[in-house]
Amino acid sequence: MTEKLADRRRADLEKLPRVQRERLSHIDFKLYFLGELRRADVVERFETGPAGATRDIAQYREIAPENLELDPATKAYHPTAEFTPLFEHQPQRVLTALSQGFGEGIGDQLQPMVRCEFPHALSLPKMSVLAPITRAINRGKAVRLCYTSINSGISEREIVPLALVDNGIRWHVRAFDRKHREFRDFVVTRMKDPTVLEDSSVLQEETVERDDQWSRLIELELVPHPEHPRPEVVQMDYDMPDGLLKIKVRAANAGYMLRRWNVDCSPDHSLRGPQYALWLADPLALYGADSAPLAPGYINPRGEGNQRVVQAL
Predict the structure, then answer these.
(1) Could you give the domains of the chain?
(2) DSSP-based three-state secondary structure for 268
(3) What residue stretches are annotated with the DNA-binding transcriptional repressor CapW winged helix-turn-helix domain (predicted)?
(4) Strand ranges (DSSP E) for 47-141?
(5) CA neighbor of 29 nearest in space, from 74, 88, 72, 70
(6) How far apart are CA 26 and CA 41, in angstroms?
(7) Is 43 exposed, middle or buried (0-12, 13-18, 19+ CB in 10 A)?
(8) What is the DSSP letter of 33?
(9) pLDDT, tens digit, for every residue of 114-140?
(10) Are 185 and 310 in contact (CB under 8 A)?
(11) I need a labelling partner for 70 at 20 to 30 A (CA). Which of 58, 61, 116, 162 fits?
């Protein structure tokens, strides 16, 4: 497809109401990733009548006539060999839709679109705990709760939740801790009986704008581990044709991310094993990040005693 034609199609789509673009995007998704589309797919997904679904399919065909063809025997549309997606489908959203459903159903009714298997989540927060926390984040409020930490056991805390963080293993909350007067990470599953403090004012020093570790973005340069037997495979796995993957991550989360992906952060790439496919080319990029001690092999250039210990472990 020529760039001129692509621009014209984008312009045609922009003229349509947002709700119709969403329906056309669903048609595009079904054709692209499932290889078939029926009028009932649009009716069931958006609860529109058959006539409305027919109009949506006709609109899609008007914009991209070469993208689909009707099989008279099955009354299903299929993508043609010339199919080019009309919409940019984000990988994470696509994989979520394929594995957990695309908003079709409520609660336990959600079903994967194709056979799919993924790791069981062994640590999930209780909804009765999560809901007050997310309300506080959304409304800029403080929360009183009981919290159990590895170092000090159970205690009552007042925190100002700022953001939810998924580190790949469990969820934690980035928050201002009024007990220690600093920003910390709190594991959601270790919280009990959170109560939103409606009448407690949040001070400027407790807001996300004052959290330097959250605001600071670090650029990390990852390369295939020098000891990996097949660096070309690593380049394929991480889409790094030039042998370099640059990512930006918050200082508060860098250590979690590097630990999740088993990135060797030792200065001399000394960690060994098939799990270490990547090496952090410049470990000094982590200097000053409170989460750095979580990174595999990281050595504080000023000595271990000068590095703050991450609390949410």
Answers:
(1) 3-87 (1.10.10), 127-211 (2.30.30), 216-306 (no CATH)
(2) coil
(3) 21-90
(4) 68-71, 76-79
(5) 88
(6) 9
(7) middle
(8) I
(9) 988 878 888 899 999 999 999 999 999
(10) yes
(11) 116
